[in-house]
Amino acid sequence: MRVLVAGATGYMGAAVLRELVARRVDVVALVRPGRLLPEALRSVVTVVEADVVEDADWSEHIPAFDVVISCLASRSGAPDDAQKVDYEANRRLLACAERHHIRHFVLLSAICVQRPRLAFQREKLRFERLLHDSAVPSTIVRATAFFRSLVGQIDRVKAGKPFLLFGNGELTACKPISDSDLARFIVNQLDEHREGTVVRPIGGPGPAIAPAAQAVMLCNAANVPLKTRSLPPQMFDWFRWLLMPLALVSPGFAKRVEFLRIAKFYATESMLCWDHDNQRYDADGTPEFGTDTLAAFYRRVLSGSESAPERGEHRLF
Ligand SMILES: NC(=O)c1ccc[n+]([C@@H]2O[C@H](COP(=O)([O-])OP(=O)(O)OC[C@H]3O[C@@H](n4cnc5c(N)ncnc54)[C@H](OP(=O)(O)O)[C@@H]3O)[C@@H](O)[C@H]2O)c1
């Protein structure tokens, strides 16, 4: 079996590569021209440089493959970039996969697409529908929050500043999952014989954690007294309304407006399965996988035994 990994230079793409390499799977990593994989991976996988979005002939350079794992995603979440990457790049990847008559396409998506309000969520859903309608057997992994999304306040807390909460810190909850646990879950999908499309929402080991409990965990790991400050989530709307007139004439401000929408979404919506019948998030109904906990991760980062992942463009604080 040869697996083509797209988005191999990203946070989850690299974790999936490590997991495949550990299982001795034959891997082709698709990377944008000029982007480098970590040294340890570069020498053990076949690297193909191609620009899926810009280059019409990109797929001519790809060796035959049986399975695709796509961890492609817009790095900014801006509407035009999301259209280009979350939808269009994945669409081109699927067209190539169809030509190769592959047996399984695994898409890393996000649990937040259940209640789409943001441009990038709509683009992800648009591609999910395309995958569903194609003849290629597929698994859509809708993951909850990554540990990477929950490292933003480590430096504040270490410096003795209060942990910032929205409202009372209980407005949202998630079952955070580590990159290695999620990578194992994704690669495990390849063991399953797939027909049609299956959607797999997935979180890390429970219980679900609200930001208030996250503050306690982080302060304990940093060995500092618990200090929090509450912010109103509506603040994102206030800034958005201020910027709206500028957004009408400036693409730069339009992106900032979308970013404020994204921030408000994550400040007020849980990363858990949505229970349509009862119109609420369902912590118990959100599947769990793995063993690595956020508390243990915070302890490792604060003791210096692990570095906090780069947050790239996904930062709020
Ligand atoms: N953050 C969370 O808590 C969370 C939770 C659940 C699900 N998710 C979802 O998980 C997925 C992966 O997230 P991640 O954090 O691993 O993403 P990431 O680190 O931002 O990586 C994105 C990948 O897509 C590639 N890419 C971006 N723009 C591209 C373009 N124009 N052409 C070709 N490749 C492009 C990047 O390549 P370059 O290195 O060349 O830029 C990179 O390999 C996303 O769909 C995300 O929505 C995230």
Taken as a percent bin, the fraction of beta residues is 15-25%
Can you tell me the CATH architecture of the domain at 2-144 and 178-202?
Answer: 3-Layer(aba) Sandwich
User: Could you give the distance between the termini?
Assistant: 42 Å
- Give the beta-strand count: 11
The H-level CATH homologous superfamily of the domain at 2-144 and 178-202, spelled out, is NAD(P)-binding Rossmann-like Domain
Bound molecules: NADP nicotinamide-adenine-dinucleotide phosphate
Regions with little confidence, pLDDT below 50 for 5+ residues: none
Give the mean pLDDT.
95
What is the CATH third-level topology name of the domain at 2-144 and 178-202?
A: Rossmann fold
CATH classification class of the domain at 2-144 and 178-202: Alpha Beta
What value does the Rg take, in angstroms? Answer: 20 Å
**Which descriptor suits the 3D outline?**
globular
Main β-sheet, spatial strand arrangement: 3-2-1-4-5-6-8
Helical region count? Answer: 10
Percent helix range: 25-40%
* Protein structure class: alpha/beta
The helix/strand series, from N terminus to C terminus, equals EHEHEEHEHEHEHEHEHHEEH
Brief overview:
This protein is an alpha/beta fold and 317 residues long. It has a domain at 2-144 and 178-202: Rossmann fold (3-Layer(aba) Sandwich), CATH 3.40.50.
